[in-house]
Amino acid sequence: MADLAGVDFDPVLAELMREGPVTRIxxxxxxxxxxxxxxxxxxxAVAGDARFSREAxxxxxxxxxxxxxxxxxxxxxxxxxxxxxxxxxAVAPAFTANGVDRIREDARSVLAGLVDELVxxxxxxxxxxxxxxxxxxxVISGLMGVPAADRPRMHDWTRLILSAADGREAGERARDAxxxxxxxxxxxxxxxxxDDVTSLLGAAVGRGEVSPEEAxxxxxxxxxxxxxxxxxxxxxxxLLLTRxxxxxxxxxxxxIRPRAIDELLRYIPHRNAVxxxxxxxxxxxxxxxxxxxxxxxxxxxxxxxxxxxVFPEPDTVDFARSPNPHVSFGHGPHFCPGAQLxxxxxxxxxxxxxxxxxGLRLAVPPDQVPFRRGALIRGPEALPVTx
Length: 387
Fold this sequence. Notes:
Helix content: 40-55%
Mean pLDDT: 93
Strand content: 5-15%
Low-confidence stretches: none
Number of helices: 15
Number of strands: 10
Radius of gyration: 21 Å
Strand order of the largest sheet: 1-2-8-5-3
Shape: globular
Largest sheet: 5 strands, mixed
């Protein structure tokens, strides 16, 4: 896994896409080889096909990206139907359009306060430290029901979990510590009636629908997923600040911003390499390639988002692109539950920063913007700006 800066597409992934839609890969950790799918139709088909199991990964040695990406019983990321459906149902009310809309004004208020502090401090400033990092932490922690005093710990744990650079033990300790925290927090809310995620899970545990271990595992996944907005939005703003034509259009035509954000989500390489694998439970043929029962299979949503058969001129940012059926939030049963929340946060960030800071621009040359090293989710470590 290369440490890539900016929004350049991974050259190794681009090479695999040229080789063919189905290729063999080996990742830095784990054992063996796996299949990688890069064609849009194949990616969607496998992501929604019950013959490719996440749960079965626990019974197979699998080549994997990070040393601590080892599946655990009860983890929703490695669950299949019907358990996966049962677990997601417990928290669904918090992530519906109505559920997300309930926190819109609170999120806007938090963001306004952060931008106020940035302006008061005066230029130059670090957009990542001042806004792009604390804003998603506050929003997801509020939705989860994490008290404000505990949010710095959440951020530290998430950074370690989403890093391949700190080693297996650091990642596992952080994952276990966050799991223990949520197990205790959910346990205190088994009789609660709140609409935050840990209260919903506490009620589900109290009704016997979800085990305490499952509730903790789901909480960890949602918390770290919510903080991914920091890196994704960092890449968005890096792209906009290095493409003044795009930035000027968003300032001049605010009505296109929601559609433009979807295109930016399609375009930015929001992660490094690949995510979690699936196991073929029977022999299947994909694009003429036989996949045997027991074979691990990875899908690349990044590659699917650049499939020229679906996205004409895929390497061009086109705010008028329609339709835009990107798979940046995944597909199938494991589609990201926080997709609506992430879109809301990106829209609020674009509105606040473009409207409040009309002169916003990079304070250093683009090649001097430091990007995170060893991170599974790509993004700038700091984004020096002035206005």
